[in-house]
C-alpha cells in the first residue's frame, strides 16, 4: 500500500536454492527496473528465517526482501500462481515455486510470469522491461480506493 500511486511493483515469490539465479538476474537489473518506475519486492516461499544470509552477498540484493508475514503473503500469491488447469502449487516442497507478479501503480495485478511455464516469458529481461513500459503508458481512469473493497 505504501507504494501505491508512486511506483509499479514486481512481486517475486521465490524458493531457494532454485530461484537464486533469477534473484541474481533481478539484482543486476535492479537499477534499470527502478529507472523504469518499478520496485522489486521478493517474498520467500516456505521458511523465511535466515533468508537474507541464504541469499548471500554477491551480488548484493538491494531490493526489499520480506522477512515477516511471508507465510500469508506466499499463500495468497500462490493461489494466483496456478497455470491453466493446474492444481495449487505446494508451498512445502523444496524449489516448489517461483512466480512473479507485475502490479500497476494502483496496486492491481496486471501480469504474471511462472518460471518454467511454456512459451516466452520474463526470463529474458527485455521481455519484462517491455511489459513494464507497456503498463507505464496506460492512462489511469481514476484513483484506487483507500481500502480493499468488493
Report on the structure:
- By secondary structure, the chain is an alpha+beta fold.
- Helix content is 29%, strand content 17%.
- It has helices at residues 20-28, 30-35, 51-55, 70-79, 125-137; strands at 8-14, 38-44, 99-103, 109-114.
- A four-stranded mixed β-sheet has the order 2-1-3-4.
- The protein starts with 7 loop residues before the first strand and ends in a 13-residue tail after the last helix.
- 23% of the residues are buried.
- The model has no long low-confidence stretch (mean pLDDT 84).
Main attributes?
150 residues, globular, alpha+beta, 4-stranded mixed sheet
The average pLDDT is 84
Number of E-state strands: 4
Would you identify the regions where 5 or more consecutive residues have pLDDT less than 50? Answer: none
- Shape summary: globular
What is the topology?
Elements: E1 8-14, H1 20-28, H2 30-35, E2 38-44, H3 51-55, H4 70-79, E3 99-103, E4 109-114, H5 125-137
Parallel strand pairs: 1-2
Antiparallel strand pairs: 1-3, 3-4
Summarize the structure.
The chain is α+β, with helices and mostly antiparallel strands and 150 residues long. Helices cover 29% and strands 17% of the residues.
Amino acid at each position: 500500500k505504501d507504494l501505491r500511486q508512486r511506483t509499479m511493483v514486481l512481486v517475486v515469490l521465490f524458493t531457494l536454492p532454485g530461484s537464486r539465479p533469477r534473484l541474481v538476474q533481478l539484482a543486476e537489473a535492479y537499477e534499470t527496473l527502478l529507472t523504469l518506475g518499478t520496485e522489486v519486492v521478493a517474498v520467500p516461499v516456505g521458511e523465511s528465517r535466515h533468508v537474507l544470509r541464504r541469499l548471500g552477498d554477491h551480488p548484493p540484493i538491494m531490493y526489499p526482501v520480506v522477512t515477516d508475514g511471508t507465510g500469508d503473503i506466499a499463500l495468497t500469491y500462490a493461489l494466483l500462481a496456478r497455470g491453466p488447469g493446474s492444481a495449487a502449487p505446494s508451498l512445502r516442497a523444496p524449489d516448489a515455486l517461483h512466480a512473479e507478479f507485475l502490479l500497476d501503480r494502483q496496486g492491481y495485478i496486471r501480469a504474471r510470469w511462472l518460471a518454467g511455464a511454456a512459451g516466452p516469458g520474463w526470463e529474458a529481461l527485455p521481455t519484462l522491461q517491455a511489459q513494464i513500459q507497456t503498463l507505464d503508458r496506460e492512462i489511469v481512469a481514476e484513483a484506487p480506493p483507500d481500502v480493499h473493497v468488493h
